[in-house]
UniProtKB/TrEMBL annotation:
GO terms for biological process: peptidoglycan catabolic process. It comes from Phyllobacterium leguminum. Residues 42-244 form the Transglycosylase SLT domain. This is Lytic murein transglycosylase. One of its GO terms (molecular function) is peptidoglycan lytic transglycosylase activity. InterPro entries: Lysozyme-like_dom_sf, MltB-like, SLT_2. It holds the Pfam family SLT_2. Residues 1-30 form the signal peptide. It comes from the Bacteria. Keywords: Signal.
């Protein structure tokens, strides 16, 4: 902006100033949100121009160009009902007893991994295993929707366009980094991997838990679990404090999911796994 105040005619200054003012407006108008599939292809083209101006690589832009309007994602977004259940019904629907039983075994089988995670982040195995089990059945089912198409569709959809536009930029950056394949599949809202991180959370909290140089939330349980612990630590987790409702660390579980039944379920399942 300082360059605008160099010597020159007033008309030159005004033209430059107007260009700065109206350039973002023009870019914003290039990608208008919509509520049907009809406008999606035009939106993608407009968004690609915006993303290119923000430094997103041609590799990621080409991947975005290959996306499709995700009808199943929109349906899922409009029909979220499980969080309206009572705690008992929610626990039953999520298979809490099975998660606890299997979780105790997984804690023993992966004792060294959980010990290293707790040493680094202060988060014990219980809540991590509870999240792992409730989100994907310990990696058994991580979703079947193309991640980039899901996130792009929600960025285009007018209901929460701003929020998912941020997620879309994050997904494109993950593709740039080689931490997300354009063909990657996940949950309906673009959640990734064994503990279902949205792309922006992978960028912010993702950890290379197995030390191979990449963050692979789908194929590496070490990456997924260490990233989850890092997320909880980033949301106020205090090493050594309790995590039941009313304890200091319950606030970190609230950061994981807005639904009260989900927060309480993590706390209950985790405590039974931790013993």
């Amino acid at each position: 902006m300082a360059r605008l105040f160099r010597k020159g005619s007033m008309s030159t200054f005004c033209a430059a100033a107007l260009a700065v003012v109206f350039a973002p407006v023009a870019a914003a108008q290039a990608a208008q949100c919509g509520n049907t599939a009809a406008g999606y292809p035009a939106w993608v083209q407009g968004f690609k121009q915006e993303a290119a101006a923000q430094g997103i690589s041609s590799k990621a832009l080409n991947a975005l160009g290959g996306t499709q309007y995700a009808t199943k994602t929109i349906y899922a977004d409009r029909n979220q009902k499980s969080f309206k259940l009572s705690l008992d019904d929610f626990m039953r629907k999520r298979g809490a007893e099975t998660i606890i039983k299997r979780g105790k075994g997984l804690k023993q089988q992966n004792a060294a991994l959980f010990a290293s995670i707790e040493k680094r982040y202060g988060v014990p195995a219980g809540p991590l295993i509870a999240i792992w089990g409730m989100e994907t059945g310990f990696g058994a089912f991580m979703g079947n929707q193309n991640t980039l198409s899901a996130v792009a569709t929600l960025a285009y959809d007018c209901r929460r366009s701003d929020y998912f536009t941020n997620q879309l930029y994050a997904a494109l950056k993950l593709i740039d980094k080689g931490d997300l394949a354009p063909s990657a599949v996940g949950a309906a809202h673009g959640e990734i991997g064994q503990t279902q991180f949205l792309p922006a959370n992978v960028l912010k909290y993702g950890v290379d838990g197995d030390g191979n140089g990449h963050i692979d939330m789908a194929r590496s349980k070490a990456d997924a679990l260490a990233s989850t612990a890092n997320f909880l630590r980033g949301h106020g987790w205090q090493p050594g404090a309790g995590y039941q409702q009313g304890d200091a660390n319950f606030v970190a579980l609230q950061g994981w999911n807005d639904a009260g039944v989900y927060q309480k379920a993590i706390a209950i399942i985790g405590s039974k796994i931790d013993g």
